[in-house]
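Attaching the record inline, Q. Sequence:
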Amino acid sequence: MARTVARSIAAPLLFLNLIMYLIVLGFASWCLNKYINGQTNHPSFGGNGATMFFLIFAILAAMLGIISKLMGGNHLRAWRNDSLAAAGSSAIVAWAVTALAFGLACKEINIGGWRGWRLRVLEGFTIVLAFTQLLYVLLLHAGMFSSRYGPGYRETEYGAAGGVPPPAPGEKGVGVPTTGVV
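Structure, as predicted:
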């Protein structure tokens, strides 16, 4: 039971982040489409000088976050060191880009001006995702502190030579069988 503490907390957080990243992708795509079409006077859009940069980073963060959640789902299913490498690295990259989008959302709020409800919802989701994605990254790497919380980085209970002693000095090991023809 103790070995699944981080796993049982990370699974609902993974699902919540996946849904939130899908919502961010939808709102950011809609807003970017309106921005490209020159319809910034749409009643539910608006914007200011930071809007274009924020939308680009929000879409990038959403795509990286969705891919990160797919790799994280695979890791939660396997819960091994080799799946932790892919899930952990993609989660860190997704969090880094989400943190950039978070900064641009804060800048857009700081600049002010009229922003429609869709843009404000997108800013809010991006700000919340920056913190929930950080919590998810920390839960994935909880095994670094104790193997009770997840797969650690130094476990060797499986692998290419897991449990097989190295060959004795002077022994060459098992070679490829030959046909006997020289």
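Residues 36 and 52 are 9 Å apart (CA to CA). The longest helix spans residues 5-36.

More tomorrow.
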